[in-house]
Amino acid sequence: AKSSGRDQYRFFSSELDKLARERRTLEQALRHALERDELEMHYQPRIDARTLDVVGAEALMRWTHPELGSIPPNTFIPIAEENGLIRPLGLWAMQQACGLLQRWKAQRRPLISLSVNISASQLADPALLDFLRDFTMHSGIDPQLLELEITETQLMENAGAAGQGLSALRQLGVRFSIDDFGTGYSSLAYLKRFPIDKLKIDKSFVQDLLGDTTDLAIVRAIMALGHNLGLGVVAEGVENFAIAHQLKLLGCDELQGYHFARPMRVEALEAWIDARQQQ
Ligand code: C2E
Ligand code: CA
Ligand code: CA
Ligand code: CA
Q: Which of 46, 123, 229, 261 is 20 to 30 A (C-alpha) from 245?
């Protein structure tokens, strides 16, 4: 028994070594991803639940490494958050979204709001504040068209510093959404403390909405809470018509999910919007 315990330990420790090595490889590769042009933003439409018009799109980062292939954001974003790369990567993401709004404005395309995910440490990034100050002052684009999405866990784990950064950005007129709402620390006091505009219901409550009475109760409760606080409520992970319909009946404001569209490249997004508006 003793030796099999030792073998197991050896097994786990070699697995852990392997994981640690893979992580170091990714971390090294990520340091060069930006300069080597391996990153790209994709955009997933957000739909008005009542009119079914496109009202916005969420910017989601994609990384394709020449040898390792496509690496999911759930893998590389946490690495970037740990080693500080999230500030330059996040700033780049914001610049992409703002650049897109500017191009649409120049082309006289109808503007939709763009939501960009941000990590807590970006709230204290002077480069982000400078960039957004410049953009909101000089682009001639309504700052309300920019929505910054932050998870409640990120916000709560950094509540002190985050609050200041959030207020400074909010003064520029940009909007804030709480992402993955319901999955984090559920200290609701922060809703009073932070100037928030929207709640985004996590897809884990949405995907099984019709089959799970607990999920339904949670979604109802989030909807009531949000609306009583004067916040918009968005549901993510809407995968079929029945769920979209139910969310509309529950009073949800915006819907996002594979039922409408997957995240896609800018050109595909533009074509998708054009096709939808001609219907
Ligand atoms: P998130 O912000 O909660 O984004 C929603 C995720 O759900 C996206 O995964 C999206 O592709 C996926 N999704 C959308 N509709 C559906 C659906 O109907 N069904 C299912 N099953 N999934 C759906 P993605 O693109 O892999 O991103 C994962 C996470 O990585 C994001 O979760 C966000 O936390 C993070 N992330 C992505 N891009 C960025 C970024 O630029 N900055 C930061 N800080 N985080 C990012
Ligand atoms: Ca998000
Ligand atoms: Ca989510
Ligand atoms: Ca469930």
A: 229
Cα of 202 from ligand 3 centre, angstroms: 5
Question: What is the distance in A from the centroid of ligand 1 to the CA of 206?
Answer: 14
| 236 CA from centroid of ligand 3 (Å) | 7
Q: Judge whether 79 and 26 are in contact, CB under 8 Å.
A: yes
Q: Which two tokens stand for residue 64?
A: 């394709």
DSSP assigned state of 247? H
Note if the pTM is more than 0.90.
Answer: yes
Q: Identify which of 236, 258, 262 to mutate to test ligand 1's pocket (most ligand atoms within 8 A of the CB).
A: 236
CA 180–ligand 3 middle distance (angstroms): 4
Tens digit of pLDDT at every position of the chain (279 positions): 555 676 776 666 788 888 888 899 999 999 999 999 999 999 999 999 999 999 999 999 999 999 999 999 999 999 999 999 999 999 999 999 999 999 999 999 999 999 999 999 999 999 999 999 999 999 999 999 999 999 988 888 777 777 888 999 999 999 999 999 988 766 677 788 888 999 999 999 999 999 999 999 999 999 999 999 999 999 999 999 999 999 999 999 999 999 999 999 999 999 999 999 877
What is the distance between the alpha carbons of residues 85 and 83, in angstroms, rounded to a whole number?
6
What residues line ligand 1, using a CB cutoff of 6 Å? 44, 60-61, 72-74, 77, 90, 93, 117-119, 179-180, 203, 236-239, 257-258, 263
Complex ipTM tops 0.95: yes
| Number of other residues whose CB lies within 10 A of the CB of residue 168 | 16
| Beta-bridge partner residues of 255 | 47, 235
Q: Which residue's C-alpha comes closest to atom 3 of ligand 1?
A: 180
